[in-house]
Each structure stands twice: as C-alpha cells, then as structure tokens.
Amino acid sequence: xxxxxxxxxxxxxxxxxxxxxxxxxxxxxxxxxxxxxxxxxxxxxxxxxxxxxxxxxxxxxxxxxxxxxxxxxxxxxxxxxxxxxxxxxxxxxxxxxxxxxxxxxxxxxxxxxxxxxxxxxxxxxxxxxxxxxxxxxxxxxxxxxxxxxxxxxxxxxxxxxxxxxxxxxxxxxxxxxxxxxxxxxxxxxxxxxxxxxxxxxxxxxxxxxxxxxxxxxxxxxxxxxxxxxxxxxxxxxxxxxxxxxxxxxxxxxxxxxxxxxxxxxxxxxxxxxxxxxxxxxxxxxxxxxxxxxxxxxxxxxxxxxxxxxxxxxxxxxxxxxxxxxxxxxxx
Length: 331
Description:
Elements: H1 4-11, H2 15-23, H3 30-43, H4 49-56, E1 61-66, H5 74-87, E2 91-96, H6 100-109, E3 116-120, H7 126-133, E4 138-141, E5 150-153, H8 155-169, E6 173-177, H9 184-199, E7 203-207, H10 214-222, E8 232-235, H11 238-250, E9 260-263, E10 280-283, H12 286-298, E11 307-310, E12 313-315
Parallel strand pairs: 1-2, 1-3, 3-4, 4-5, 5-11, 6-7, 6-8, 8-9, 9-10
Antiparallel strand pairs: 10-12
Helix pairs in contact: 1-2, 1-3, 2-3, 5-12, 8-9, 10-11
C-alpha cells in the first residue's frame, strides 16, 4: 500500500510538504506542488477519511446546518452543495437548528470534526456569526452578512421585477404575504417591492405568515387579510401561493382576473398543460447557491469575505393577468 511517506520520498520533499501539496496546494511552490501531485497519482496514493485527517489536518467533511429538514426550499441548496463536495472527494454532514443559538452551538461542536460549516439562512446575530468564523471556516447561504463569505440569491431585485410585471398589467394595489419573523432577506424583498409600487403611484399592503407552506395560503384565502382594492398578491413562497390559488378558486374567485397571484420562488410552479406554467414566480438558483458556497469551503484559496449575489429569473405563468373591476370580497 502506497503511503504519504513514499510519495514524499520519491519527490524528495518532507512529509509535511507533500501533505500541503495535496491538501493546501496554494501554500506550496508550483514546481513542487505539480511534482508531488503527479507522483501521488502515478503511485496510486489513496487516503481514506481517517488517514486524510491524520496526514493533512482535513477530514473531507463539510457540515451544513439548515433551519428545517422538512422545508422543500432547502433541498436543492443541500443537493447542490453535496454535488460540489462529491466532485472533490468530500462529503456532507447535514443537521437542523431551530434557532440562532442552536445554530452556533452546532457549528462550534464540529471543531476538529469538519473542515468547515455552511449555514443556510442563519438567524444568529451577525456578531456571533463573525466570531464563529474566527474558529472554524464558515460560509453563509441566503443571508447577506458583511465580512463573511455569503452567497445570496438576488430575490430583492427579482421581487422588484415581479412588482413591475404586475404594475405593467395595470395593478395598483398589491398585497404581499411575508415570511416568518426574523427574515432579513424578506425585509429587503418588501423594501424592493414598495419602492417599485410607490414609484408607480400604487400601494403595497403587507401581512406576515407563520410558515411558508400550503396551509398558510389556504388559511389566508379563507380569511382574506387584504381590502377590496387589492387585485394582486405576491407570496413569500410558491407553496403559500399555491394555497392561495386553491383557496381563492374554492371561493369562486377568478385567478387571474379578480385576483392575480405570484411567488418569490418556483418550487411549486408546476401545472404546465402546454400553455406554460401555472404560477408566475421567480426562478431562484438554489442548487447554484449550494455549489458556490461549498466550493468556497473546499477550494484551495480562502473564499472572499464578501456577499456574492446570484441573479434570479422571472417566469411568467397563468396566475397573473390584467385586473378585473371587482375584488375578492364580492363573492
């Protein structure tokens, strides 16, 4: 069995230099790095995870912490990160945390067991996240945290595009169903929508939601929280929007027409029958977010401590159209 010592001896370097050439190639001169890597490949050096940790100080494991394992929004992010890790010979350790304190506790407990941590939509205060990053390599997904590697879908700009689409159709009173309390990104989305609507001389009415799921949309459709002048609604998630569609149609409210419905993500944007998707929504590059953040942790150079924004795309569906003169309360 070929050992790291064998490769180091053949390359004429120390074991520690050979280790760095394989695990942290940015720290080794190009000529030495290429020689060690070539010999390792030719000699068939293969390190299992335990040996890798012993020789290189790296486990090959990246931990990913999400607020919930049942929310479908996080699935594509995790899948993208796992694909990136697999491509580099690593693997993921996935866990969930119900609040900001638990997020930090979980990440801190992984010191020595993981090469880094991906926090997805973390809720801990920025100061605690920055302090945590001094102890373990850290990247943040879907929350713009200054001074940390953060990878964010530019949904605020996308929501501005959604609002512009509805305004172009003729809507001037637009409702917005927000996300759970504490979502800083949702606050930015609301601000973007308000700017667009106010500039056009309209008004945005905002209500909150307990959870971004189908039941929330059904409940809001049954107990309509907006007044009669609202002719379009943008929902925090496509599952809320889908619940609104079902609930409004059960009440006999024509969608679109008497009410247009759009969503900030495309996860439930299904129902195409040859005439396009059912739901007008943003295509959010969730897998790309996961891949970019994972690559930042396993790359040979440290990730920049800055916010990287990845654009969204407006997908037009059959749930939005020009407003009819009547409102939902006419039923």
